[in-house]
Amino acid sequence: MKFQSHFSFTKQQRNGIFLLFSIIVIIQLFIFFVLPSLDSPTINSNKTPEQITAFITQIDSLKAIEVENRKPKIYPFNPNFITDYKGYTLGMTQEEIDRLLRFRSKDKWINSSQQFQEVTKVSDSLLNKISPYFKFPEWVKNSRTKVSPNYVSTNSKLDSSKKIDLNTATISDLKKIYGIGDALSARIVNHREKINGFNDFVELTEVYGLTAEVIDRIKTQFVILTPRKIKKINLNTATKSELVTVQYIDYEIAHQIIETRTLLDGFSNLDQLKKVKGFPLKKFDIIKLSLQLN
Fold first, then answer.
1. Which residues is 25 bridged to in the sheet?
2. pLDDT, tens digit (0-9, with 9 covering 90-100), for 56-94
3. Rounded CA gap, 283 and 118, in Å?
4. What angle do CA 158, 161, 164 make, to 5 degrees?
5. Would you identify the CATH topology of the domain 233-292?
6. CATH 1.10.10 fits 160-223, yes or no
7. Number of other residues whose CB lies within 10 A of the CB of residue 195
8. DSSP character at residue 204
9. Do 160-223 and 233-292 share a fold?
10. Alpha-carbon distance 134 to 78, whole Å?
11. pTM of the model as a whole
12. Which of 78, 225, 255, 292 could form a disulfide with 165, with the two C-beta atoms 3.0–4.6 Å apart?
């Protein structure tokens, strides 16, 4: 019995195999020797050492420009409001930041670059780097002893009979308070119109940019003679639909209030609302204006 060999090829087949093998070899040589030279930039061997050095210097310069562009940019800012994070990005140490915050906690203001260094003890090099970006508003630039003629001292409280009704105060009246300018006075009046008049001074906390210190100054010069009328809801009998009409109370919080009320067999005081799951504690003083216990 004769077996036919599988490795017997005709002349035409052998030529085809040889051609295929040649193509494979050529492709391999192209991959290993030609492609790498196409991917990597080459420096003309005819270049002089000085030209090569200049080329490398140019590349380094471009890299330095890119690194500089990626650095955080500093924009003009009021140094009185430097936070921990802001101070860190400026290059201040934690001790320097703490000195500034302690100074500001006494309701004092930085009025110059020199005073900033005296308070924080920053180095001359750091001061020279960041002081060009200091931006002091007019009401900070003016010292407490050099205020505008319209400024009203708030060191002592006025008699109630001399105070202005906050619900009828004009922008000019509000600007007499130290720390209130055009923007804040306009926001106060706009918010007053939005809610149809103030019921309590705590509603001033809803005005963006008003700090607790400025609100305390307002209290010394103004009074709420015509408070907005608020329809109060009985906390111990209110339904979920009634509770959600109160600002900052949604259906989930209303549900939790009713659950807590059931467990307590009724609220004995409004402060117990603070124990309700998910209750917005920061808005408690605003919310309780609309609630009562019968």
1. none
2. 887 777 777 766 666 556 778 888 888 888 888 888 999
3. 39
4. 75
5. DNA polymerase; domain 1 (1.10.150)
6. no
7. 13
8. G
9. yes
10. 6
11. 0.48
12. 225
